[in-house]
Amino acid sequence: LCEDRFSQFVPATATHRPGKILAALALSLAAGGEQATDVDQLRAAPELFGPVASDATVSRFMSRIKEQPDAFAYGFATMTRSLRSKVWSAAGARNPARLATPASPLIIDIDASLVHVHSEKEGSAGTYKGGYGFSPMIAMADYGKANGTGEVLAVQLRPGNRGANSAKSHIEVLNQALAQLPDDFYDEHGNLYGEKILVRTDSAGSSREFLHHLDSLGIQFSTSYSLPVIKERFIRWIDEKKYWEPALSADGDQRDDAWVIDASKVIELKDYPPGTRIYLRAEPLHPGAKATLFDTDGNRVTAFLTDSPRFNVAFLDARHRARGRCENRIKTLKSTGLGKLPYWSFAANQAWANLAMLALNLVSWLQLAVLPGGHEASVWDVKRWRYRLFSMAGKVVSGGRQRRLLIPGKAPEARLLCRLIEGIGVLFQRWRHGQPSA
After folding, report:
1. Would you give the distance in Å from CA 106 to the centre of its chain?
2. How many CB atoms lie within 10 A of CB 429?
């Protein structure tokens, strides 16, 4: 697969092929590496990882990517889509594509973040926080806490002065994310089953242009919304909590100090897609929070827009608030390489961002396709995997023409590691014999 897509980035007679180089870089980032030279940790254990390319070989590989960024981007996108299709199919009953329906769609979170740099790099610029660097736009798949931490579909590197509320950037990264979805989301003519997808954003994604674009594709949306300044009588109506219903917690339990309501008949929405409704949520102000015009009764009032076919107010509110999971995903993405862009070239840093995405997804795919449902490790973030598993001591021994990995029997996660190795072996044999589904 890699040879077919990336052979132009290495000489035909080169010993280290592109797939091996990409794998080494992704493993290095997943294990906590921050620079391309950190592959030396893998090079120090050839009995585990085999021959690993030298720093000079990796450097030449990245230089060729810089010269042909479009070719690498296309090859990388098609490779990861193929991998995702195989992994999701291997997940069996937990296949996110199989679970997606109009009533329970696959959720794609879109959010922007900031990556600060300490030296001038191509495409870097000042940020609204007074720093200097980049403002990547990120699209992520959230297929539910019970099935893992979710994964990243696309990372679009942008200069630091690009706004988070750019409809153009939202559309571009969405198109990249949709291109990553398996064939289950498309009919035989290549048309998208938009009703099986819901895009969730903060208020930066509530622009009419972006929402109309989603509506044209048939994609559902749930986006935070900044309440407009309106008449005083509306503020008094907000205070009347007898019209509201209790909100739900993340675990589905009813809350006594938070309320939600469908305000579509009270707040007029103009020029939004047909079927757009507005929902309000009220909950006590956090300690030290400054009250706004609408917080007249000691409660913070927030709003979100959706065109979901479901009308359960508390459910829609709880689903929208679960958007906070994408913040953890972005934090994890930064710890797997996005947080430190090592190159001067914008194209090379974009390729590095894609490698960081692959590193994060490798762990996410283990959680989805190898671990059984409900396993505690299926919701661990990458940092916990590093501490509990990747740093486990071991020793490679040879005997009887076999090579074995010895690990301490008293290690807390010894059984988990054995289960992972066994599961990966089963998955490999199934793919080897052309059996993609579980």
Report:
1. 13
2. 10
Q: Which residues contact residue 147 at a Cβ distance below 8 angstroms, ignoring those fewer than 6 apart?
A: 91, 94, 96, 368, 373, 378
Among candidates 320, 178, 182, which has minimal Cα distance to 248? 320
Amino acid identity at 56: A
Residues contacting residue 131 through CB under 8 Å, at least 6 positions apart: 114, 116, 160
6-49 pLDDT tens trace: 999 999 889 999 999 999 999 999 999 999 999 999 999 888 88
pLDDT value of position 148: 81
Rounded CA separation 324/250 (Å): 11
Judged by DSSP in three states, 256 sits in strand
151 phi/psi in degrees, rounded to 5:
-145, 170
Which secondary-structure segment (H or E) carries 176?
helix 167-178
Helix/strand/coil percentages in the chain, nearest 5: 45, 20, 35
| pTM for this predicted structure | 0.93
**109, 111, 213, 271 from 208: Cα distances, Å:** 18, 17, 8, 7
Distance from C-alpha of 178 to C-alpha of 141, rounded to nearest angstrom: 10
Tokens 């996410």, residue located: 364
The pLDDT score that the predictor gives to residue 146 is 77
Task: Yes or no: say if 150 and 143 are a contact pair by the CB < 8 Å rule.
Answer: yes
Residue with structure tokens 């391309």? Answer: 36
User: What phi, psi does 89 have (nearest 5°)?
Assistant: -65, -35
